[in-house]
Design goal:
about 25% strand; alpha/beta; 21 strands; Hypothetical Protein Ychn, Chain: A; 5-stranded parallel beta sheet
Length: about 425
């Protein structure tokens, strides 16, 4: 079974691949050393990395290729590549494929149109992790269409999921809200708005459901109009018909359901069986909702990813979902120094926001200390609610079951 799988579409830099390597070492050496004794090919892989778009360059770059060689030395690990994207970029797997022929897959499954499809492979992994039918697959979109291919990826993935008899959910947040705008007419690429309409029609024809939700806060800040009909229905006046702009609580209600949810960079981590050693954090009350771990990887203020990640985390925790926020990679800059904004600034002070919400139930903040050390910086002393963790701590969050949570998996979203 594909116990754990990850999707990466963005560039994978050595730092990210480095902490992935260390977490895998923690998993295999500390938790499941017996898996290292199995002969290659004896059973299905425990870890599968699905790579498409710019993530594929990591298989050719000498620095990251060296780390991939170490990761693939664990025989339960497999990489599934998007053949179409490899060809488009002129990337050759060469020596990696020769050395790990059984673990590096560069031929995709045949989709319903009799063409190879990477997204079919991903939908099959989702399908295998959620039995029996019916089930649902979700996609969380934060990037705008056309400037980012992730919107197109989401349409492709959800379409493949419907082919596998899974209902589909599209959640749009931050600039992802633009995916549902009415009147899109691109001349040089696929129409994302029409893709949303297609998903709705395809799901209906298959007797399945399709939800396309946009965060109302993200929408209003970007000039989208809605109105209340007086009957409790919020009407979106500038979006494609299947697309609904709603308060973020609507989206969180869908996210509280037990289906897998992916994004441009995301993970689906199976929970260890109950009775296993628990992690060092826990939900306030017993829950069956999948926990969510949010990795803040981008520096604050230049984009809205850091503040948006925290806002999503607060909303999730308020709904009873155990939510972990880990500042890692360049996201660690949110914790460094004493942030002081101009008195009349409309900007959100990230550190003040963290301190304000840190006591919320079901919400935990962590600082990944190797990211601090790599940059030669320290965590601001006033951020006492942000706990320091290293590689073992990150491994525990990923692979140990948190207390009071009885779910089949946890979600990993990279901001």
């Amino acid at each position: 079974m594909n116990a754990h799988f990850f999707l990466f579409t963005s560039p994978i830099l050595p730092e990210r691949l480095g902490w992935i390597e260390e977490c895998l070492k923690f998993f295999f050496v500390q938790l499941y050393p017996e898996t290292l004794m199995h002969q290659k090919g004896a059973e299905s892989p425990i870890f599968t990395f699905f790579l498409t778009s710019d993530a594929l360059y990591s298989l050719a770059d000498p620095e990251t290729l060296q780390i991939w060689n170490i990761i693939l030395s664990f025989t339960p690990v497999r990489i599934v590549c998007d053949r179409q994207e490899l060809d488009m970029r002129g990337i050759s797997l060469g020596p990696l494929k020769m050395k790990f022929a059984d673990q590096v897959v560069d031929i995709n499954s045949m989709a319903a149109d009799n063409k190879p499809s990477f997204w079919k492979d991903l939908a099959l992994a989702i399908r295998q992790s959620k039995t029996p039918l019916p089930g649902t697959a979700g996609w969380f979109q934060t990037g705008s269409p056309y400037m980012h291919r992730s919107a197109w990826h989401g349409i492709r993935f959800l379409s493949a999921a419907i082919d596998e008899r899974l209902s589909a959910d599209l959640y749009t947040y931050l600039d992802g809200i633009h995916c549902g705008h009415q009147g899109q007419y691109p001349t040089d690429m696929e129409n994302v708005g029409k893709g949303i309409v297609m998903l709705d029609q395809k799901a209906t024809a298959a007797g399945l459901s399709f939800h396309a939700l946009g965060c109302s806060h993200s929408a209003s800040s970007r000039g989208y109009n809605t109105w209340d009909d007086g009957q409790g229905q919020v009407i979106s006046t500038c979006t494609e018909r299947p697309f609904k702009i709603r308060d973020i609580s609507w989206m969180i209600e869908r996210l509280s359901q037990p289906h897998p949810v992916l994004a441009a960079d995301a993970g689906h981590l199976a929970m260890r069986k109950q009775g296993a050693t628990p992690s060092f954090d826990r939900a306030e009350k017993t829950s069956t909702m999948p926990p969510v771990t949010i990795l803040v990887t981008k520096s604050p203020y230049s984009t809205a990813f850091a503040s948006g990640a925290i806002s999503l985390a607060v909303a999730s925790a308020h709904a009873g979902i155990l939510t972990r926020v880990i500042f890692i990679e360049d996201g660690i800059y949110a914790l460094n120094g004493n942030h002081r904004l101009a008195e009349n600034s409309a900007e959100t002070n990230i550190q003040e926001l963290i301190n304000m919400v840190a006591g919320s139930e079901n919400l935990h903040f962590f600082a990944f200390t190797p990211s601090l050390h790599k940059r030669g910086i320290q965590k601001e002393k006033s951020l006492n609610a942000v706990l320091d963790i290293g590689y073992p701590g990150l491994g525990k969050i990923f692979f140990y079951p948190p207390g009071n949570v009885h779910a089949e998996h946890q979600r990993l979203l990279v901001f």
